[in-house]
Amino acid sequence: MTLKLGTEIPGTSAEGNITTIWVPAIKNIKAPTIIELEAGTDISNYVMLGGWSFDPSQDTVSDQRENTVQDFGAPGRKSAGDISIEVIDNTNTEHEEQNEAVTIMHEGASGYIVRRRGMATDAPLASGQKLTVVSVKCGEKKVINPDANTMIRSQIPLFAQAPGWESETAVLTAA
Question: Tell me, what's a Pfam family for it (predicted)?
Answer without folding.
Answer: Phage_TTP_16
